[in-house]
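I'll show a typical protein example:
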Amino acid sequence: MRKWVSAVLATAAVGAVAGVASTATASAGDEQAANQACQREFDRAVWEDMDSFNKRDEARYRAIIHQDMVTVGRKGQLFIGYEANINPVLESFKLPYEWSMPWTVTHTVVNGCKSGFALLDAYYQVPSQNVNRHYTISLTLVKERGKWQVIKDTVTDVLP
C-alpha cells in the first residue's frame, strides 16, 4: 500500500509541476503577445506625432499631445503645459514657406502599456532658405485611458 500511495503522490506531483510549467509557458506567451501589441501601439503613436506635425494637421497634432506636456527646446527653452506646447507649433504650421522634418526612430523602450521613450534622428529642412538642421529628438509618451500621448519632448542640436 505504501508503494502505491507513493507512486500516486509522485505522479500527482509530476502532473502538478507540468501543469504549472504549462501555465507559466502560456502566461509568458500571453505576456509577450501583450508586450508586442503595446510596442506596436507605441510605435504608431510616435509616428502619429511626427506625421501630424509634418502634415501640419492641427486636429491630429492636438490629439496626440498630453495636457501636462513639457518640451525642452534646442536652445534650452521650456514649454510647460498643453497650450504652451501647442501654440508655437500651430504658429509654425502657418509659415508661408515649405518646411519638413524627415525622421527615423533609432531606439525605443516601452514600459508595458504605461509609458515609452523614443529617440529620433531628424532634420529640420527649409530648402528655399538653405536650412538643414540635424536634431536628436527624444519623446516620452504615456498611455492613459487607453490612449498614447506625448508628455515630454526634447530637441537637441546634433553638432557636426
